[in-house]
Backbone:
C-alpha cells in the first residue's frame, strides 16, 4: 500500500510538471502569434500611412500650382494620419507590455 501511495504521488508530480510545461508552451505560442499579428498590423499601417501622405501631397501640389485646394482630401489625409498615429501607439504599447 505504501509503495502504491508513493507511486501515485510520483504520478501526480509528473502530471503537474507536464501540465506546467503544456501551459508554458501554450503561452509561448500565443505570444508568438500575437507578435506576428502585430507585425502584420504594423505593415498594414505603413501602407495606410503611405496613402494618407500621398493624399496630402496631392492636395499640397495642387495648392502650390495655383489650383483650388481640396479641403476634403486634406481633411481625409489628416484624419487618416491621426488614426494611424493612434494605432501605432497602441501597437507600441502592446509590444512593450
Residues:
Amino acid at each position: 500500500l505504501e509503495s502504491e501511495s508513493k507511486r501515485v504521488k510520483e504520478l501526480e508530480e509528473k502530471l503537474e510538471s507536464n501540465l506546467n510545461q503544456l501551459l508554458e508552451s501554450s503561452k509561448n505560442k500565443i505570444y508568438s502569434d500575437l507578435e506576428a499579428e502585430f507585425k502584420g498590423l504594423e505593415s498594414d499601417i505603413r501602407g495606410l500611412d503611405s496613402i494618407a501622405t500621398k493624399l496630402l501631397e496631392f492636395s499640397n501640389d495642387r495648392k502650390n500650382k495655383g489650383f483650388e485646394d481640396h479641403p476634403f482630401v486634406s481633411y481625409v489625409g489628416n484624419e487618416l494620419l491621426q488614426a494611424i498615429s493612434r494605432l501605432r501607439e497602441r501597437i507600441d504599447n502592446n509590444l512593450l507590455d
